[in-house]
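Holo model, nicotinamide-adenine-dinucleotide. Inputs:
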Amino acid sequence: MERANTMLNQINLNQDFGRSRKVCVVGAGRWGKNHIKTFADLGVLAGVVETNQDALLSLRKQYPDVKLFTNIEHALEHDFDGFTIATPVHTHFDVAKAIIESGRHVLVEKPITMKSTEALELKRLAEQNKVNLMVGHVLLFHPAFRKIKELIDNGILGELQYVYSNRLNLGTIRTEENVFWSFAPHDISLFQYLTDSFPQVIASSGAMIIQDGLHDTTITTIKYPGNVTGHIYVSWLHPFKEHRFVVIGSNGMIRFEDSMEGKPLVFYDKGVVWQAGKPQARDGEVSHIDYDKTPPLTLELKYFVDHLDGTPVEIANAQNAVEVMQILEGATESLMKGQDQTTVKLQKYAS
Ligand SMILES: NC(=O)c1ccc[n+]([C@@H]2O[C@H](COP(=O)([O-])OP(=O)(O)OC[C@H]3O[C@@H](n4cnc5c(N)ncnc54)[C@H](O)[C@@H]3O)[C@@H](O)[C@H]2O)c1
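Output:
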């Protein structure tokens, strides 16, 4: 991953990142529009596939030189170098499979598929067809998280002890995947990045309020080797947006507030020391850390374009996608065991 960070820094400096490349975006909905705009700004947008005619009409006005299609088969007849998929998750596997089998590079939005076995199949297909398969774990490209990783890797934080993420909002309520599948792929991909390992144990619980069978809020605890623990709290039934990420190390602590004004990244020179056999809080300086404010989606899509020459991708690659899917499934298994098997029942004393 250190090498991957160096490569990412090089992208920032490299202005000539492949304007001769042609990219086609599949799905022009809420998020796909961001792919389209970013690729247009990068000068590589050449095609869009969208099943909705109204959406196509408005794209025709906005991007008169871009080829538009209503299905992927027609788009595959053209000479695009790579595709990104921003359609609903249940379509990802079939669309990605068709693209990979045509020998073209692809970036699939998160969650990559509905099952880890499908993600594994796409990974193998991509290897056989010698194409890059990337997943839209966009926060792996976020300069603030790359700074956090730097502080862990160069020992400033000491031993990594605890990580948590709150991703809460009254946002898009999906009907095919629950809130954990919708929001937490980002957090899991970050936990994987920061710990450089694979979890040993996962436990998840939550509440289904709006739709039967789909959780609206979940709290998940993940244990990594070396006694590193973390939790992920996600909800789309929450009165305000809170994207908070906290990292606790033996020598210091970090807080990143992605939903606050100015998106502060703060280092706390605080911790716990042992004095006369007792743990004591150690209070130290609080300092703000600067980081590059380039939007992570721009960095992610630039990285994808930069690898359309077939150089293997290292960040948000197929292996990362499969691992995140396995962790999503582990959490789902725990969620579905439900309250009966994982919790202790309480009864109030009679008064
Ligand atoms: N990386 C991120 O931060 C992020 C953020 C939001 C959404 N997403 C992901 O992006 C994907 C899309 O989410 P969204 O919110 O934009 O959904 P959306 O429903 O707003 O848009 C999906 C679009 O795909 C079109 N579509 C459906 N099937 C198609 C097909 N077979 N071929 C072509 N077009 C098709 C629909 O008409 C629609 O316009 C999801 O996987 C979601 O999880 C990622």
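The CA atoms of residues 152 and 158 lie 7 Å apart. The radius of gyration is 22 Å.
Archived with the compound record.
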